[in-house]
Specification:
Radius of gyration: 28 Å
Distance between the termini: 52 Å
CATH architecture of the largest domain: 2-Layer Sandwich
Number of strands: 24
Largest sheet: 7 strands, antiparallel
Number of helices: 26
Strand content: 15-25%
CATH class of the largest domain: Alpha Beta
Structural class: alpha+beta
Shape: globular
CATH superfamily of the largest domain: DNA ligase/mRNA capping enzyme
Bound molecules: nicotinamide-adenine-dinucleotide, zinc ion
Length: 705
Amino acid sequence: MCTVIAVHITHNQFHFILSSCFFITFPLKTYLRSMSPAEAKNRIETLSSEIKQHNYNYYVLAMPSISDFDFDKKLEELVQLEKQFPEFADPDSPTQQVGGFITKEFITVKHKWPMLSLGNTYNEQELLDFDQRIRKAIGDNFEYVCELKFDGLSMSLTYEQGKLVRAVTRGDGVQGDDVTANVRTINTIPKKLHQSDFPQHFEIRGEVFMHLKAFERLNNERVENGETPYANPRNFASGTIKMQDSAEVAKRPLDCFLYFLYTDNIIYKTHWESLQAVKNWGFQVNEHSRLCHTINDVFEFINLWDKKRFGLSYDIDGIVIKVNSYAQQQELGFTAKSPRWAIAYKFKAEQAETELLSVSYQVGRTGAVTPVANLKPVFLAGTTVKRATLHNADEIEKRLKLHTGDWVYVEKGGEIIPKITGVNLDKRKPGAEAIAYITSCPACGTLLERKEGEAAFYCPNDEGCPPQIVGKMQHFIDRKAMNIDGLGDETIETLYQKGFINHISDIYSLKDHSGELKLMDRFGEKSITNMLEGIEKSKEMPFDKVLFGLGIRYVGATVAKKLAVHFKNVDKLAAASFDELITAEEIGERIAISILDYFKDERHKEEIEKLKAHGLQFVTEEKEVSLASETLSGKTFIISGVFAKYSRDELTNIIEQNGGKIVSSISAKLNYLVAGDNMGPAKLEKATKLNIPIITDDDLLAMIG
Ligand SMILES: NC(=O)c1ccc[n+]([C@@H]2O[C@H](COP(=O)([O-])OP(=O)(O)OC[C@H]3O[C@@H](n4cnc5c(N)ncnc54)[C@H](O)[C@@H]3O)[C@@H](O)[C@H]2O)c1
Ligand SMILES: [Zn+2]
């Protein structure tokens, strides 16, 4: 279990550390013994203020500057020091309080039962010590429940007469933020319970989180729209829950597993029993929890999930071990900060150490320039890693302070592309130079610009910079924009290289070159015909799709739709003042400025005139309900879960555009349940019982052809 595996690859002498449980307990104790009281007092003060700052970075800014492991090491050091020198322990110490905060933006609600943290450990010995402490207190006759430790944010839900009345964050443990409106958008949290054996008043607590696939899709959209991406799904989920606009929250699929039941009178004897009960009431309880009879069973569970966790559709950061019996829980009690009857065994993020070979830069369609670290290949969490994201200039110059030839630590978080968490300064080469972010575009040489308040640098040469030109055309033909059949990203790239297309409007002149196109390698006559047909057909796409396809910064698919409805045609939109723009629904200052900038550019206006001449739609059709087909006419659908390729809004659109109808609850009359990852168990059970066909998003697309 607690092994540190160093693998030596002889030809290049990498070594890297695989997996968990390497802690500092013993060296820490020796170090503490040798400390004078004055030194201890000093150290306690320094640690307390550092930890408070890290708590703020983590809980309020959602931007931690050190790893959880390093944070926990500091906290553990403080715990030990306060034990050894109780005369210096402050009642305000971060060891005595839950680390979170409440905010001013939401109504503050006091918790009926405090929302505590969990003691944690990264090693086997400390878990054995925990087991011994329990045995000493309550004897040998007890069980543990082992659960996955979901990496999200905890939430307390209050139900009265079976209705969800309040959802509150953990906050500082005593009081939290009332985020009910936002939590109501989470599909797997029941708003109303259907069965009758639940108490009239109860609280249920669990973890709100985001699935990895949804995280990647939404984060990619953020990058495309020029927004700062979130570092991991946990930050994305906690940033989302704290938003003021519930309509925006609804667009970001969150999910929730429940794991604690609180009632005024004890109705079940054990935690395990209550988990089974709340499942029947309609709550989503994680299927992987296990009842364990011995600490060895617990270790077996930990070992299993240390490996299997990479196959889950969401992040976990450890295993939570809870004493099962409520009576025994009561006997064991609490510390100021956490229950004595539970502990979290945390997995150390898999980390590897390798050499930085170079930093390269990618230019996206909006001109945003993203740096990427090229690494000496190293094996990490099942794959060979060669590259890591660096996000932006601040990451290179301020946070990591990267130098040429540095040895860096790489970690895999929620993203497929790993990130660099730190630099091994012991290995920095003498004379190594600090790496400076480039000042001009790697593709076209134009001087880069950074807008105030933004992290990314941009290449402003949008009409002359090859990756931007290609990226814009690829965006235009994308499924979510003009959805041009027979034309893909690679073809765009080739046609650009061969000089056929430079602007979106050139795509519509390709038909004049069909003879030349047919002579090109790789293009058969059939594929050229298909492509040209696809291009012609796209002229029927509605105005909002065209507008989205133009690729105006911050004008995503939803914003384009709102603009199309509000302004009705492109001329009105182009002539709109700042004040007129911000009166449109969901259009804020940032979007308004971006639209004004776009239409200020004469080249953009010329391009729009050319597209108009080709016959594209620049006016919103009054008859909003023109259907793409009648294929689904008379059929009813429910969409549930998380999908890799589409948001639920997009699937709703597809169904409605083809004559289908979305209904709100499952009944015997329902025709189809479109299910993604992690749909609510209650829905699944009901649909199965009623024999309702459960289909995937691909099945749905196949139905409409
Ligand atoms: N890197 C930093 O700067 C920094 C700063 C502050 C905190 N942190 C990290 O956050 C941790 C402290 O956060 P915390 O107080 O939320 O503790 P925690 O995350 O270690 O454990 C408690 C939390 O686990 C969650 N949880 C997930 N699955 C659960 C389950 N099945 N049963 C019960 N609870 C479950 C709950 O939200 C609960 O509040 C630290 O251990 C540290 O790793 C890091
Ligand atoms: Zn450029």
